[in-house]
Amino acid sequence: MNKIAFIRTGGQTGVDRAALDFARKHNISIVGWCPKSGWAEDMPHSPGIRAFYPELKETPEEDVTQRTKWNVRDSHATLIINPKHSKLSKGTNLTEQTAKEYKRPYLEVISEEDFDKIIDWLNTLGVELTLNIGGPRQSESPEAYQITTNILEKVFKAVNDKK
Length: 163
Known about the structure:
CATH topology: Rossmann fold
Number of helices: 5
CATH architecture: 3-Layer(aba) Sandwich
Largest sheet: 5 strands, parallel
Strand content: 15-25%
Helix content: 25-40%
Order of helices and strands: EHEEEHEHEHEH
Number of strands: 7
Oligomer: single chain
CATH class: Alpha Beta
């Protein structure tokens, strides 16, 4: 059995996009909600992010709030990767608030230094997880993509080595 069966995310630049690229590279099934028309910061026109990730489903609304809430709602747990540990990202703040509202487990981390914390947290959650991964977009945290990739590579290796 796999620890992570699905990676769920909304496809925005930064953390979301790194999670999608990571999932595809490691043959982890991708699921997620994106705003109507597939809107993303770097792909504002239809089909938007869905041109590259047709697995994502569009929400009825263009508002990114609906996407964020639905991705939390439809996951077992949410990993928030917030490299600047900044509260300036409205979407990242909404992700945390929504996880609390839906009583979904969540963990916010800021760097690869949090590796052991992530592994310990994942070990409390069971297997075959749908893991929502979110955090700031590229314009809010230019280093978010690379830090997310580094974290996920390290975590994936550790959880797969335990099989």
